[in-house]
Automatic annotation (TrEMBL):
Species of the source: Allokutzneria multivorans
One of the Pfam families matching this protein, by short name: Phosphodiest
PANTHER family according to UniProt: BIS(5'-ADENOSYL)-TRIPHOSPHATASE, ECTONUCLEOTIDE PYROPHOSPHATASE/PHOSPHODIESTERASE
Gene3D superfamilies: Alkaline Phosphatase, subunit A
Domain of life: Bacteria
Protein's UniProt name: Alkaline phosphatase family protein
InterPro entries: Alkaline_phosphatase_core_sf (IPR017850), Phosphodiest/P_Trfase (IPR002591)
Amino acid sequence: MQPLVPAYGAGSLADVTPSLLAALGVPGAVDVLGFAPTPKVCLLLVDGLGWRLLADHAADAPFLSSLAVADRAITCGFPATTATSLASLGTGTPAGEHGFVGFSFAAGDELLNALRWHRHGVAEHVDLRSTLIPEEVQPHPTVWQRAEAAGVAVRLVAPQLHQRSGLTRAVLRGGGFLGTVALGDLVSRAIGAMREPGRVFCYAYHADLDAVGHFYGPGSAPWRRQLRFVDLLAASLAEDMPADSTLVITADHGMVAVGDADKADFDADERLSEDVRLLGGEARVRHVYTRAGATGDVLARWSAVLGDRAWITTRDEAIANGWFGPHVSDRVRERVGDLVVAAKDSLVVVSSRREPHVSDFLGQHGSLTAEEQLVPLLIKGCVTV
């Protein structure tokens, strides 16, 4: 089994927004995905909608499936997780450049939970926005700022509670934020944005399919019902958008189902925890930060425990293999674990004491399998060239 290394520069999430900027006529933007020119774009990101999951449950999503073309799956990028993928969309660059190398990673002396912007792996909530300034953790201009500078009206339609989050400040800054509380106002706000005069780039985000997948497992009865709601959401957007607009639908990652037998517990197995000073990432992909001089020993012990159920590489090997993109800056390199562990099949490396809630999830993601890496690229209203 070989890792599915993302197709950076040819078909990854990091290529979607720059290609759409080019379709909108933004100077300097390069279209590698072949979008036709358009004055208005709505980009809907459905959290957790993997390409293979959509194919396996096409009957539950007739509208989305009607847009699916066999060769329009793209890779989300590594790790296959929300924080990394949103950063790739928001900056138009892979993790090696934007620096969000996982759900959690070492940033200076802190282990940063990039979704919540707090100290990871501790019981108390420690807000890090004042010490790890989001605009400094991710300093590159966003695609939204580039679009605004070119005269495009940018609207971000996302949950209201995300408006001032560290992640939003880092990778979604630029444009007007339109907060939502449910499906209805997501559609209404997105349609309202698309009806504004001139060129428009609207980004809309839906999170609940991912949440249901984590709690009940991808493909479960609750997940399939949620997929039907997502399908109605997408169809409603397409039905009410202006005639000169384009709807593009994609996702940030897929998901795999896991069970208790798939778990290796970092907190219960001393062979995994010995000589490890920090454990980052998440259950399907781990950044292992080792004590000085112990990387080789930790690699040997993790290999003995996990066997052939994971790809286990050093930092230098993971970077050389292109997992984080064709270029990894010095600023980002130090955030990558001394070891990078990417799970195969349905393995998860949980941390039952540090991460009690997420360790019980029945759906997980993050690694380099096709189930996690492949996401749809669905288009309505614009024919690719």
